[in-house]
Design goal:
The complex is a heterodimer of chains A (322) and B (485).
Chain A (H helix, E strand, L loop, with lengths): L1 H22 L13 H11 L5 E5 L1 H6 L2 H8 L3 E3 L7 H10 L7 E5 L11 H10 L9 H28 L34 H5 L13 H16 L3 E4 L6 H6 L1 H12 L4 E3 L22 H16 L10
Parallel strand pairs in A: 1-2, 1-3, 3-4, 4-5
Chain B lengths: L5 H16 L3 H17 L4 H22 L3 H38 L17 H16 L9 H9 L1 H4 L7 H4 L11 H33 L7 H32 L17 H7 L2 H12 L9 H19 L3 H20 L21 H22 L3 H14 L3 H13 L1 H16 L14 H18 L13
Helix pairs in contact in B: 1-2, 2-6, 3-4, 3-5, 3-6, 4-5, 9-10, 9-18, 9-19, 10-15, 10-16, 10-17, 12-13, 13-14, 14-15
């Protein structure tokens, strides 16, 4: 028995050494996938001096915020951490918590369907392959579906990227593609769709479902999580705000009771500043780009304008704007 | 919990350590039982109650059958177990199928009926453990096996995690006695088990999952795919299902070896078979022998008139098809195999009884032309039947046969096939390597058993295979196909 265990341990140790050696060559600097933008967003988050405005949420934030305009309006740097709603609220808040500094403002804009506390394990798996350090942001609820069930796939993904580094770099994705890392600007906004015609008809934008999953919304877990995060922000001298995601008028009308429920649950959280109401974030259907959450350039400009006005009411005016 | 997941590689060493830390029978069985329910409950803990119910029912009925004083009582108890087990299987797996089929039949006769369908989730592995518990009571009824008094031992036998969700379907008389005594660790068996697990993982993750990508990509647009594409997809599916299921069986047998338990062999290089009779002796052996012993022989087997024998073969194969899934295309798959087996039996010139122990494809390194022809012919028939297995409905299967049949005699079919093979060369070259490795190692269960090679060489091969699994096997992973049955 001892000999067998020794042999197996020795063999596994050799493999572990090989794995670590291989990871030495791990490099995703030229990775083109949309989700690989998490690497750049974290670099910017760590390097930008405060006080800052950190905007986070799903892809509605990536598509619909123009950080340069917001920065000028507010006189402080803006970092757009929005990537994909599938990350789930726990992961989104966890990845900025450690980086919060006194004087920062956090703007959360979460897609309605994520108020169920759910997440997309496949998407988190991909994000971990592009930035393994993101594993520290995982919560116990992610353990089973992301790490234990998909750990082997994550290890495989890391291996492939490390090995490919020896031979050939991934081919650069065309910048015209909406979902590509190169489509993001230095602030973390997706700008590749700017100037492009909408890919969704106004009728389709209007009929977009805000809640694809019919589950009880919002869950107590999510509200408790937001309340805890609000408490943490207060302790650290950070202002925590919430802005409702954009939607077309009819889409909101169809889901009015559920949205109202979310709004009243958010209003009850102390230390959370609601910047707007769901009605304030209603946009003409023609301002949506490819889904009922993604705004076009014109829609993004309008949304940024609204956000800047709301934020100005809680922030001191910048010297340039006086 | 899937074998191809990180959690399994954490779970296994923990259970291994706990199992061997105290080599006492009760302790070892307790560890395996707890581990098995944890393994099964990882998918959905609610499944465990159904398995426990099914196990307890057969445990009680098995003992009552042994204690029954009259044949009538024994028959009654047997009926209870058959109705209960098959009833559970019918409820979860076949209710909607029979309800819909009944409605269609009535509609064809001009009656309109509203059928009730149930929205039940099919518990993973229900067909496997139901057949295993059924065989336990059937063997007791036949007087071939004495019921177990030790409940722990019996529950461990039913739920033993390596073979719980996709077999091999173990017989009580083979597996249960292994839980009746404390296991003694054998390093040799454990090492063989590790090799078998690695080989199984390589088949599942490097081949089955990647072949599955090709298959799905073509079958999803079967109505617009060319004949060459459909032929390639069918060929790939033949190996996908083989690598998936035999890979699972290898991992199961290898895992069981780590606990000193020997499982029956489930696959013995079936694609080297020279006729369909041989194929069914080498493919999913535990299911084939189950149907042989509990369906074919009780129906009369071969010791009856030729007509009755033919009917018995057909009935057995139809039931085998239905076991795989609640849909007519599975029944048609069974029927096609049954019809081909009959044809082979009645008209086949080379229908020799090939003993199972014989090396598949003959003893020589290079097979003769005759053997090659017979293997190719058998493989083609099996592939044609796999179309019925893979499709979603019979119409789709007929379309595929029609399109391949129309194009197969034109040169463009082969040009396209060659082009498609070129586009998927990485997977197909790996597949060719598997076929060569299995051909060369077909005298043994595990082609990786190379004791004569120096350790450094063996470790190099194992390392390469392990890294191949990690590199190629994690790009596109899917559940084991047989989990759905």
């Amino acid at each position: 028995m001892k000999r067998f265990c020794l042999k197996v341990s020795l063999f596994m140790a050799l493999q572990a050494i090989l794995f670590v050696a291989l990871l030495w060559n791990y490099d995703v600097s030229e990775e083109t996938n949309y989700l690989a933008a998490t690497v750049d967003k974290h670099v910017r988050l760590a390097r930008t001096a405060g006080p800052r405005v950190i905007v986070t949420g799903g892809s509605n934030v990536a598509f619909g915020i123009q950080s340069d305009r917001l920065a000028v309006a507010l006189g402080r740097p803006v970092i757009n951490m929005g990537l994909a709603a599938g990350e789930g609220i726990d992961f989104m808040l966890s990845e900025i918590t450690g980086e919060l500094r006194q004087g920062d403002v956090v703007v959360l804009s979460l897609e309605y369907d994520r108020f169920n506390g759910g997440f997309d394990a496949n998407l988190l798996e991909q994000i971990l392959i592009y930035r393994p350090a993101n594993a520290v942001y995982l919560k116990p609820k992610h353990l089973k579906k992301v790490l234990l069930d998909r750990g082997l796939k994550i290890a495989g993904g890391l291996t492939r990227r490390a090995v490919e580094g020896f031979f050939a770099r991934p081919k650069a994705t065309s910048v015209e593609e909406s979902f590509a890392r190169r489509g993001f600007n230095m602030h973390g906004d997706l700008t590749v769709h700017h100037g492009q015609p909408a890919r969704i008809t106004p009728a389709a934008a209007n009929s977009g479902k805000l809640f694809p999953e019919r589950r009880k919304l919002p869950t107590t877990d999510v509200i408790n999580l937001l309340a805890d995060f609000a408490g943490e922000c207060r302790r650290r001298g950070v202002i925590f705000t919430f802005s409702f995601p954009p939607h077309a008028p009819k889409a909101l009308q169809d889901e009015a009771p559920a949205v109202a429920e979310i709004q009243s649950a958010l209003q009850a959280i102390s230390n959370l500043v609601l910047l707007d109401s769901p009605a304030d974030q209603t946009y003409e259907p023609s301002l949506f780009f490819d889904t009922g959450y993604h705004l076009t350039q014109a829609g993004g400009a309008l949304r940024t304008e609204k956000l800047a006005s709301s934020l100005r009411t809680i922030l001191p005016l910048p010297a340039t704007a006086k | 919990m899937s074998f191809a997941s990180l959690v399994f590689f954490i779970f296994l060493p923990v259970v291994f350590a706990l199992h061997w830390v105290w080599p006492r029978r009760q302790w070892q069985n307790s560890v395996l039982l707890a581990a098995s329910y944890f393994f099964y409950g990882w998918w959905d803990y609610r499944y465990c109650s159904l398995m426990l119910f099914s196990s307890l029912m057969d445990y009680v009925i098995g003992r009552k059958i042994a204690d029954a004083r009259t044949p009538r009582q024994r028959r009654l108890l047997l009926t209870v177990t058959l109705v209960s087990n098959l009833g559970l299987l019918g409820l979860f797996k076949y209710f909607n199928f029979f309800a819909d089929s009944f409605a269609l039949l009535l509609a064809a006769a001009g009656f309109e009926v509203n059928t009730t369908t149930l929205n039940l989730v099919l518990p993973i592995g229900i067909s496997f453990y139901t057949f295993q518990t059924l065989s336990y009571t059937l063997d007791i009824y036949r007087g071939e096996f004495a019921p177990r008094k030790d409940l722990l031992e019996y529950l461990t036998f039913v739920s033993f995690f390596p073979q719980l969700v996709a077999g091999p379907i173990e017989r009580a008389m083979h597996l249960l006695p292994q839980f009746s005594a404390a296991r003694i660790f054998s390093a040799e068996a454990a090492i063989t088990g590790c090799r078998l697990m690695l080989w199984g993982l390589a088949k599942k993750m490097m081949l089955a999952d990647n072949l599955g990508g090709i298959v799905e990509g073509i079958f999803i647009r079967a109505d617009s795919a060319s004949g060459a594409e459909l032929a390639l997809a069918t060929f790939c599916f033949a190996f996908q299902i083989y690598c998936d299921f035999s890979g699972y069986s290898d991992i199961a047998a290898g895992t069981a070896s780590l606990f000193g338990i020997q499982l029956v062999r489930n696959f013995a290089f079936p694609y080297f078979s020279q006729n369909l009779t041989e194929f069914w002796r080498r493919w999913h052996i535990s299911l084939s022998t189950w149907f042989r012993d509990y369906v074919f022989i009780p129906l009369g087997g071969s010791r009856c008139s030729a007509r009755r024998n033919s009917a018995n073969i057909l009935a057995t194969m139809l039931l085998s098809g239905l076991w795989h899934g609640a849909a007519w295309h599975y029944v048609a798959w069974g029927a096609m195999h049954g019809a081909c087996l009959l044809g082979e039996k009645l008209f086949g010139r080379d229908h020799a009884q090939i003993p199972f122990a014989a090396t598949p494809g003959g003893e020589s390194l290079l097979p003769g032309l005759d053997a090659c022809w017979r293997m190719a012919r058998t493989f083609l028939i099996v592939c044609a039947a796999w179309v019925l297995f893979r499709v979603d409905n019979l119409n789709e299967a007929f379309q595929i046969y029609w399109r391949v049949g129309n194009e197969v005699f034109g040169a463009s079919f082969y040009v396209n096939l060659w082009k498609l093979a070129g586009e998927n060369r990485a997977v197909l070259v790996t597949l060719a390597a598997l076929v060569i490795a299995e051909w060369c190692g077909r005298r043994r269960w595990n082609p990786l058993a190379w004791e004569k090679l120096p350790r450094a060489v063996r470790w190099l091969v194992y390392t390469a295979l392990g890294w191949g699994v990690l590199y190629f096997g994690t790009q596109r992973s899917a559940d084991f196909i047989y989990f759905q049955f």
